[in-house]
Amino acid sequence: FQSAICFPTSASSFMPIKSLPKSPLSDCLHYRFHCRRNGSLWLTLAVSLILTSNQSATARPQKTNATQTQPTQTQPTQTTIQLPPLEATIVSINQFGFGFKDNFGTYAYRVDQDTKFWKNFTEQPPQSFVIGDQIIAEFKTSKKLGTVIEELTDPTTYRWLKDNRKNVQLGKLIAGKPGTIQFQFADGTRFNYLTNEKSRVLINNKLSGIKDLKVGNTYWVQPRTTPSLKTSVELLTDTLHKELDTNVKNNILFGTLQAFDSEKSTLTITDAQGTEWRLKLDENVNFFKNGGVVDSTALQTNLAVRIRFHAESSGLKVAEAIYFFSPS
């Protein structure tokens, strides 16, 4: 806990991060916030660590026989807690980092040379963030600095990044160089994927290589993201291959459009495993094609589509956005 940078409860303004005091857990608004925000799990973990520490410090040594071997002295291990993302408002900025405020308190965190900044779907310099911006911060643990900001984004970009890093995407290859390829999605946004020896490429259902990809062609991309938020290609294919992860998660479905009923506002798709899905269109549904916004008349059967949806209490899936490209 001593590696955490936080304000004591009496602090009301942002102090230079180098001068921040080391506060006990009971005075650390940051940990109180995370205990409340994440329920009893964090609270139980924090209390358990305190009790364990106290018991270790106050336990009386056991009597031993003279012939009994004395235990070897070991250094105590430091417990590291991976903090969840923080959604807050920027209230202060200095050369060392940022000050944030939310409904539970005020916090300050350092940045380092590896901190990433994203705004409006593109990577930006730190100066692009100003006081008053709504943000979501991800954290990492630095050996030298303790808890530091790993990535700082606006909320919309945060959700977009999370989608790109976890879910199968449909995109057009627009650039590539050794170790990196760039895709443009149907809404016009762009994202870079790393490639390595573990990246698998299937062209016409045959094992191929990155060198066989063609700029301008459309591909399905299944990502792999490390804890350090580096996203690489796990599987890339030009067809709706059965190896693509079709588990319905994060409110994303993808497949081939089988039917569209404009009068009933419904559509039917078949995923890579052959499972059929029927969805209703939200009254404010958006259609994205080739990087721009279109209307429902652009939909055609047999198109490869990617759909973001929400589920109603009845279980009915309602499409909020549909992404697709012109047939190759």
Characterise the protein shown here.
It is a single chain. It is globular, with a radius of gyration of 25 Å. The strands form three sheets. The protein has a seven-stranded mixed β-sheet with strand order 3-2-1-6-7-4-5. It has a seven-stranded mixed β-sheet with strand order 10-9-8-13-14-11-12, with helices on one face. Helix content is 12%, strand content 41%. The N and C termini lie far apart (55 Å). With 328 residues, the protein is mainly beta. The model is unreliable at 1-72 (pLDDT under 50). The chain contains three helices and 20 strands. A hairpin with a 2-residue loop joins strand 8 (169-177) and strand 9 (180-185). Helix 1 (29-38) crosses helix 2.
**Structural class given helices, strands, pairing?**
mainly beta
Largest sheet: 7 strands, mixed
Please count the helical segments. 3
Identify low-pLDDT runs.
Answer: 1-72
Radius of gyration: 25 Å
Q: Which strand order do you get reading across the main beta sheet?
A: 3-2-1-6-7-4-5
- C-alpha geometry: globular
Strand content: 35-45%
Helix content: 10-25%
* Average pLDDT figure: 81
**Roughly how many Å apart are the termini?**
55 Å
Number of strands: 20
> Strand-and-helix sequence, N→C?
HHEEEEEEEHEEEEEEEEEEEEE
